[in-house]
Amino acid sequence: EQILHHWSHWVIREMVLLDEFKWDAKWICEQLDYKISPKQAQESLDLLLKTGLVEKKGERFVPSDLKITTNDEVTNHLLRDLHTQLIELGLKSLFKDQLSSREFAGVTIALTDEQVPKFKKRIKQFRRDMNAEFSSSDEKPSKVFHLELMFYPVSKGRQICHQK
Questions:
Q1: Which of 27, 58, 90, 157 has an alpha carbon within 20 to 30 A of 36's alpha carbon?
Q2: Residue from 52, 64, 75, 59 nearest 21 by CA
Q3: What is the mean predicted confidence (pLDDT) over 62-89?
């Protein structure tokens, strides 16, 4: 459960896949553009080892499993907080990072109540497919990225509008 408290745990877990990765809190802070302190980086490193999400193999640290998933429906307050942190990072990226290294896209679409579960199912399947394809790649990664999909109603809907 501690792993869900901060976005940096997940990012650092992925960073261990980088060839140039250093098990060093200061190096990690530099790589994360000082979005966390060296103390926070060290706490993440300690937590990743303690929880078994990262293990040492020879001279390298590696994720214990390349793919980790959580429940599809975010009901836990820790997962909501984690998504909030990642969305806030994305917002900063929208204004800071070059277009060539980020992608923000959305669709505004009118749906029936019956179409909503199907739409959500397609998003979930897309996320699973992307994770399966790219987490199991033999290619060496060069940078850690985060994909956050957002889907939410922006109109009240027919049944709510007709209520008195």
A1: 58
A2: 59
A3: 75
Q: In 3D, which of 53, 90, 86 has the Cα closest to residue 68?
A: 53
Calpha distance 56→2 (Å, rounded):
20
List % helix, strand, coil for the chain (3-state, nearest 5): 50, 5, 45
Query: What's the chain's length in residues?
Result: 164
Residue type, 163: Q
Candidates 28, 32, 9; CA nearest to 20 is 28
Mean pLDDT of the chain: 84
Alpha carbon distances (Å) from 12 to 70, 72, 80, 146: 18, 23, 20, 12
For tokens 């509008």, name the residue: 161
* One-character DSSP codes across 120-141: HHHHHHHHHHHHHHHHT-SSPP
pLDDT band at residue 74 under the 50/70/90 scheme: very low
